[in-house]
Amino acid sequence: MTYKIIGDSCLDLTEEMKRDSRFQMVPLTLQVGSAQVVDDETFDQKKFLGLVKACPECPKTACPSPETYKEAYEQAEAEAVFVITLSGHLSGSNNSAVLAKRLFEEERAEKQITDNKRVEVIDSLSASAGELNIALYIQGLCEAGLEFDEVVKRALEFRDRMHTYFVLETLDTLRKNGRLSGLQAFFATALNIKPVMGADKGTIIKLDQARGINKGLQRMCDIAVQEAGDSADKVAVIAHCNNAQRADYVKAELAKRAKFKEIVITETAGVATVYAGDGGIVLAI
């Protein structure tokens, strides 16, 4: 079975995966004041962070149109197309991808196209490192020769047992854009308190807190390893925003606590850069 894995631009691919034609990103659009930035291969993280720092307004994101997704499905030269999106609780990207699938299938039925191409849209219930971890898992299943329906079934099971965590320098962008609904805002910056955040079925929750970024990252690793259980066959994915040294620190802290099949480090593209902010770390196991 030939396959293609398509993600919105919060699927933070590694540099190697960006060069692999079996992976594709459908870009969101980023808004900083009057400036619009397309979150594609032209995204310049350092320049974007400079724009954000200089702009008094909070940056925002806009999801891809259904037509953009539909075009990606049509152009995919594969029998199986797996689409991984941001949590539906955080973005309209999943809705666009699902609508695109319906339009794609209706059009093919009308034209009586009878090839074997199939599309499945998976709500990651996560973002960034979480989307990448699902993509890696799906790739492994496809390379192992599993059929389409079995890949979908196992991928959804994997998603439901995967955990996502993050520690950021500030939660202001998430708060101002309404992504922390139901949570009290954190105003502890004077005390250098760093909340350890997680996800509950795609909704952001607070798990713990610690004083200072390194203590926060250590606490995140404690919780992640505890919840991971037997991790010897699991992949941990770390996404960082403009701080590779901090990602290496988290990798070392995880390795102190448990043995993993692999620990993958990637850098945030535009969407995760908006919400994670300079120095933010996202972890998915």
From TrEMBL:
This is EDD domain protein, DegV family. The lineage of its organism: Bacteria, Bacillati, Bacillota, Clostridia, Lachnospirales. It comes from the Bacteria. It holds the Pfam family DegV. Transmembrane segments: none annotated. NCBIfam families: DegV (TIGR00762). InterPro entries: DegV, DegV_C, DegV_domain_contain. GO terms for molecular function: lipid binding. Keywords: Lipid-binding. It comes from Enterocloster lavalensis.
